[in-house]
Design a protein that fits this description.
Layout lengths: L21 E2 L1 E3 L2 E3 L6 E5 L6 E6 L3 H17 L7 H17 L1 H12 L3 H24 L4 E4 L3 E9 L2 E5 L5 H15 L2 E5 L11 H8 L6 E3 L4 H10 L5 E5 L2 H11 L5 E5 L5 E4 L5 H13 L11 E5 H17 L18 H17 L1 E4 L16 E4 L6 H4 L6 E7 L2 H9 L3 E2 L1 E5 L3 H10 L4 E4 L14 E2 L2 E2 L5 H6 L1 E9 L19
Parallel strand pairs: 1-5, 8-9, 8-11, 9-10, 11-12, 13-14, 13-19, 14-17, 16-17, 19-20
Antiparallel strand pairs: 2-3, 4-5, 6-7, 7-23, 12-22, 15-16, 18-21
Helix pairs in contact: 1-7, 2-4, 2-6, 3-4, 4-5, 9-10
The protein binds nicotinamide-adenine-dinucleotide.
The site of nicotinamide-adenine-dinucleotide has 30 residues, from helix 7 and helix 8.
Length: 514
């Protein structure tokens, strides 16, 4: 296939060269079809046409992948390699990802509708995730405890076994790397089940891992629907862990389905994160940041600051300037480097987001966007949409939309700002804009959020905990916490002197049998 000529780069679709016509599973070092031969359609979000068929994995395919991962764990070298040996392989993976970043971004953009410049940034972050966990495992220390004259006790860290990794469709490749890197670094073997809307970039992992020297069976990939392939992975007896990123309602279901086999679970779920802007904030910086915070990645971002709470003294000014910026955002062909908001991932998601926009028209005052952009009559395009004066009871205030839609609400005091911030079921991220240090830290400590940024949008430090509270998740990954999740920490106790042991049954031993 060749690249479509681009007469008008804002609308003409770019089709990457050499697209595969079908995507298979990758099990035990081989590309394979589903055992029953079943496939599902994959659409691109600009034409909404099916451009490939992906193998639709079921229970039997998951069984096969888990068996391969189990064999590689029990009999293969991977869990026993020295940290330095795994570190070298992980760094090779990072090198290969970096060397293919433009191809990765091109495919990711085509499959997901993310703007190309942002997809490129995500490809580089994927490489960085591998480098980071490669560094961590060689620097890993474990605890030893001394009880003077009596005991030395130490922690024997061991990989947990087979990890099931289930990922969503927003920034697919990067989010897969966020799970693959620490799982492999820890010595686990894995079965990855990527999102069915966006399987294209995940299919590249197989060759990358092979080239980097990952032994067969360590990495296995099964495509398929969540309720089939994902469900079978969650319920499998021989899978010790599930790391899941996705919607809160799916997380709840997985939690219940994993209970009978008592799996370790890491749940990164939905969000409806507040950005609180005080009158004493640097308003220019706050506007740049809150515009980027909700409209980057097409608004399909778990940590999006999708509720902006603004102090009444600057509310009108903020709203006017914010709406103007939103109206000026360039929506268009995801492959165009000038594009700021591309096409939403899938027509089903487009219907969900535009449905919320219609609801918002009843609940708030529309000051920007509100539907499809002119001149983009097909494809999943939505104008950056701003609702103001949104009450806290509104659905667009309470529910995750996961698109380029923001709700703005005024407040009059620090107490009211905090109450509004916490008055939703989610608790993933929060952003606070103020020049008052005391207020910033006081608020940060009281907000129900796993992560808080003061005077910034989401800029990650990979060493810090990542995750949410309330309906936004369970367990925090990030840095050593991720390695802990994929490891067992066994306590080994060594006695240095004879141990006092109560002599049960010894006092009348001489009379026994007399
Ligand atoms: P989703 O829950 O629909 O699907 C996520 C994954 O789960 C997919 O691979 C899907 O096939 C699978 N799945 C679905 N049903 C399943 C089942 N019954 N058993 C096992 N697996 C199943 O989520 P989505 O629509 O793909 O992604 C968007 C959501 O992800 C949003 O809510 C967003 O906030 C969240 N998200 C959270 C984070 C975070 O770090 N907290 C990051 C990115 C996205």
């Amino acid at each position: 296939m060749t690249t479509t000529p681009t007469e008008d780069s804002t609308t003409a679709q770019h089709v990457p060269a050499d697209l595969p016509a079908r995507i298979q599973h990758f099990i035990d070092g081989e590309f394979v079809d589903s055992l029953d031969g079943d496939t599902f359609d994959v659409l691109d979000p600009v034409s909404n046409q099916t451009y490939l068929q992906a193998a639709a994995g079921k229970q039997a395919d998951i069984d096969r992948a888990v068996a391969a991962a189990r064999r590689a764990f029990d009999e293969g070298p991977w869990p026993h390699l020295l940290p330095r040996e795994r570190n070298r392989i992980l760094n090779r993976i990072a090198d290969i990802v970096e060397s293919r970043d433009s191809r990765l971004a091109e495919l990711e953009t085509f499959d997901s509708g993310l703007p190309i410049t942002q997809a490129l940034g995500q490809a580089r972050r994927a490489a960085e995730n591998f480098r980071f966990f490669a560094d961590l495992i060689v620097a890993q220390i474990d605890d030893t405890y001394k009880v003077p004259g009596k005991q030395v006790n130490y922690v024997n860290r061991k990989p947990k076994g087979v990890a099931g990794l289930i990922t969503p469709w927003n920034t697919p490749f990067m989010l897969e790397s966020w799970k693959l890197a620490p799982a492999l670094a820890s010595g686990c073997t894995v079965v990855l089940k990527p999102a069915e809307f966006t399987p294209l970039s995940a299919s590249l992992w197989a060759d990358i891992f092979r080239e980097a020297g990952v032994p067969d069976g360590v990495f296995n990939l099964v495509n398929g629907l969540g309720e089939e392939a994902g469900d079978a992975l969650v319920k499998h007896d021989d899978v010790q862990l599930i790391s899941f990123t996705g919607e809160s309602s799916t997380g709840q279901l997985i939690f219940a389905n994993a209970a009978p086999t008592l799996k370790g679970l890491s749940m990164e779920l939905g969000g409806k994160s507040p950005a609180i802007v005080f009158a004493d904030a640097d308003l220019d910086a706050a506007i740049d940041s809150t515009v980027f915070g909700v409209f980057s990645l097409n608004g399909e971002r778990c940590t999006a600051g999708s509720r902006i709470l603004v102090e009444r003294a600057v509310y009108d000014d903020f709203v006017t300037r914010y709406a103007e910026r939103a109206e000026n955002i360039r929506v268009g062909n995801p492959h165009d480097p000038e594009t700021e908001v591309g096409a939403l991932v899938h027509p089903e998601h487009y219907d969900k987001v535009t449905g919320y926009i219609e609801i918002g028209k009843q609940e708030g005052r529309l000051v920007a966007g509100g539907g499809r952009p002119e001149g983009l009559e097909t494809g999943n395009y939505v104008r950056p949409t701003v609702f103001v004066d949104v009450p806290r009871t509104a659905r667009i205030f309470q529910e995750e939309i996961f698109g380029p839609v923001v709700a703005i609400t005024p407040f009059d005091s620090d107490e009211e700002a905090l109450e509004l911030a916490n008055d939703v079921k989610y608790g993933l991220a929060a952003y606070v804009w103020t020049s008052d240090l005391e207020r910033a830290h006081t608020l940060a400590q009281s907000i129900d959020a796993g992560m808080v940024w003061l005077n910034s949008h989401n800029v990650r430090d990979l060493r810090t905990p990542f995750g949410g509270v309330k309906a936004s998740g369970l367990g925090h990954e990030g840095g050593y916490r991720s390695l802990d999740f994929y490891s067992d920490q066994q306590a080994v106790h060594i006695s240095l002197a004879p141990v006092h042991t109560p002599k049960f049954g010894a006092s009348n031993a001489s009379t026994v049998g007399a």
